[in-house]
Amino acid sequence: MATNNEIALDKPPFSSLKGKVVVLTGGASGIGAATVRSLHSSGALIVFGDLNADAGQDVLASLVDISGVTFVQTNVTSYDANLKLFQTAHKLHGRVDHALSIAGVPETQKWFDPSLTLADIAVEPDTLTLDVNLKAVLFFTRIALFYLRTGEPDSDRSITLFSSVAGFLSRPGLPLYQCSKHGVLGLLRAIKREVYVKDGIRINAVCPGMTDTNMTKAVLPTLRAANINVQSAANVADFALTLTSNRSLEGKAVLIVGGRAWDIEDGIERTIDQWLGSTPSSILAENTKILSQFPIRKWTSTGSSGSTAMWSGSELQPGPSGEGTTKNTASQCSFDLLFLIKFRRILYLPAAANR
User: Fold this and answer.
1) β-sheet bridge partners, residue 261
2) What pLDDT was estimated at residue 19?
3) Measuring CA to CA, how many Å separate 43 from each of 12, 35, 39, 92?
4) Per the residue annotation, which of 20, 101, 147, 181 is the catalytic one?
5) Which of 29, 42, 101, 163 is catalytic?
6) Number of other CB atoms surrounding residue 162 within 10 Å
7) Alpha-carbon distance values, 74 to 35, 78, 92, 340 (Å)
8) I need a surface site. Which of 29, 46, 126, 257 has the fewest CB within 10 A?
9) Torsion, CA 154, CA 160, CA 161, CA 165, rounded to 10
10) What is the pTM assigned to this prediction?
11) pLDDT tens digits, 43-55
């Protein structure tokens, strides 16, 4: 059945991206490499980063003319590395028009394995999945917004984030991956409206289903044998660039599966009465109406006394400063998320281990 939330796929070359300066991460393999190739065929000026320098050079070698393509080895978990990527683009081309945060990793450790022992719990677990898939995206977006805001006010500028179908549906066995991809959609929803209204910058996210990449290579034969639909990296890349190039697409979170794409954001908001109920949705609507009357940037700010102003009821109230210091809201959210995950991991410790 056709729905009005389906997003039509544009095919390269994307004429509106010709001569545009595009910065992206994760460009050495999979969806990122396919994005670089599609941008190249569209005549864009590309600055792409990836941790794998050899793979980055391989992508460059696969292109016929690389005069408008620059590779920068980039560890996205490093704030300075993200900054260098954008500084390089600005130094080379004098501006940044579009940015895509594509780098990602799968689940890297079994945080909640029932076989964990007291000795296992005593060792802090690896957080690479959260660091790459969420923290690095926050770094990237913060820096991207600065450079995009310096562009011409009437020019089209955008950020495209990468979430996943696991960003809004349950995918058992992938707790950190799912947390990180939910976080990406949380970031989209937190800033898309204000950034578009005040700065004219479009922010969208893609949520790919099963895709043929290095991340899924080990399980692809099993998936295909079970007749599970697996799409190409190029297909996902072209949908991401459809969002990047189409000036009418803003604030979308787009599920990409089976070679087609659908926006999930409009449906969630439009059908809230159905899935939440009329009473709670009415209460939320009224609260939202009241909150919308206050400048968003004033909800959390540092006062002259060093205290943090925090939203409380109908007015701004002073809150604890944390020993005279304040934390960035995004960093605090990441801290809270990581704390809850660690706490839950301890709760999952088998009861026998406590005896």
Assistant:
1) 7, 256
2) 98
3) 10, 12, 6, 16
4) 181
5) 163
6) 25
7) 17, 8, 17, 29
8) 126
9) 130
10) 0.82
11) 999 999 999 999 9
